[in-house]
Amino acid sequence: MSAPRGEFSSRFGFLMAASGSAVGLGNIWGFPTNAASNGGAAFLFTYLILAFALAYPALMAELIIGRHAKANAVAALRGLARNDATRALGTTVGFAGMVTVSFILSFYAIVSGWMLAYMFSALADIVRADGLSSWLQTPSLIRDGLFTVIFMSLTIVVVVAGVKHGIEKWASRLMPSLLLILLALIVYVMTLDGAMDGLRMYLVPDFSRLADTSLLLSAMGQAFFSLSLGVGTMLIYGSYVSKRENLPALGGMVTLLDIGIAVTAGLLILPAMMVALNSGIQIYDDQGGLVAGPGLIVAVLPALFQQMGDAGILVALAFFVLMSIASVTSSISMLEVPLSYMVEEHDLSRRKAGVLLGGGITLISLVIAVNFDTLFELVVSLTTEYSQPLLGFFFAIFAGWIWNRNGILQEIRQGCDDAEHGLFWRIWPFYIRFICPVAIMAVYVQMIWG
C-alpha cells in the first residue's frame, strides 16, 4: 500500500477523463440507432429524464465512494463494510468488477483494432496504396490480431504514465479533438442528399411508443450503462478527485457531457445512414431493424465513404480517427480498474502492473479473435448484459444501505460546505436507496427474460 496515488490536477482534466470513459464506441454507434428504433424524440425525451433521475444518482454513488476511500474498488467497498458479511460482499463485488471490466476490454480491444485498421486504410487511400488499403479493410486473423495488439499497446502506454501525465494529459487532448471532428462531420453530412430524412427519423417523436415498456427499459439501460456504471471505472476516477471539488456539481457536468455527446452523435450517424440508403446501400438487417453495432461501422458507413470519391477518403479518415479516439479514452479507464488494485494491494509499479495486466488481457483478446464466432457474442453478453447491471445494483446497495448516512454527508461536505441544505442531499439518498436498485434490477430482469 506504499505506492503513491495520483490525482487529477484540474477539474477540466477530470471532466475530459470521465466523459472520455463514458463516451465510447457503443455510445457513438448504439445510442443513435437505439433512439431511431424506439420512437425517435420520444426515446430521447425518456432517456434524458432517466439519465438525470436515475443514472446521475448511480454515478454519484461511485464518485463519492471513490473519493472517500482514495483506493481501488476492492479496498473502497471493504472499507464501507459493517461486519464480516458485508466485508466479504465488498471483496466479491470489487473482484467481480475487475474481472468484468477486463473481459469487456478484451472484446473492446478487438473492435477498437478494427477502427485503427480502417483509419490506416484511409491513410493508404490518400497515398494511393490500394493493395494495402484493401488488406486493411478485409477481415482476417492476422489483421485483427495485429491491430488488437497495437491498440492494447497504446492503452498500456497511456495508463502506465499515471493519472496526471497519462490519463489526464491524453484525455484533455483527445476529447476536444473528438468533439471538433464530430461537429465537422455533422456539418458535412448535413449537406448530402437524404440527411434530412435521417434527422427526421432521429428527432421527430413517435409519442405512441411512450406506452411501450420496452422503450422505457431500453432508455433506462442506455442511461445507466452509457455512463460506465457498475464496474468501478467511475469509482476509480472519483478516487483521484481532489477533496476540494464539489462532487454533486462535478457529477452533473460528467452526466451532461456524456448525454450531450451521445445525442450529438445521433446528428451524425442517423443522417449518414439515410444518406447511405439514398445511395443504394442496405441499412436494414434481416429482421428489418436498423443496422447497429460493428456491422454499421465496418459495412454500411465504409460503403458510403467509398461512394463519395476523393472527399470520401477524407471523411473516412476523420470518422475513423473519431472512433479511435473514443476507443482509447474508454479503454484507459477500463485498464485503470485492475491496475489500481495491483499497484495498491500488491505494491507493483504502474509499469509492471500495466504490462502484466495489459499483456494478459491482450492474450484473452487474441483467444476471442481466434474463436470469434463462438466467443465474441458470448463474452459481450455475459459481461454487459448479465454481470454489469448486477454489479451496478450492488454499488447502489453499498451507497444506500451499507455506508453510514452521516459518513456520506461528511464526504460530500468536503468541497460543498452547505451540502445538507441543497437539492441534491434532499433527493439523492432516497434515490440511491430505493429507486436505483429497483430500476437496475428491472433492467437486469428485462435483459435476462426479454
From TrEMBL:
The keyword Glycosyltransferase does not apply. The keyword Transmembrane applies. CDD domains: SLC6sbd_Tyt1-Like. Keywords: Membrane, Transmembrane, Transmembrane helix, Transport. The chain crosses the membrane at residues 12-31, 43-65, 86-110, 145-163, 175-195, 215-237, 249-276, 311-332, 353-374, 386-403, 430-449. It is a multi-pass membrane protein. It is found in: Membrane. GO terms for cellular component: membrane. It comes from the Bacteria. Pfam families: SNF (PF00209). NCBIfam families: Na_transp. This is Transporter. It comes from Pseudohongiella spirulinae.
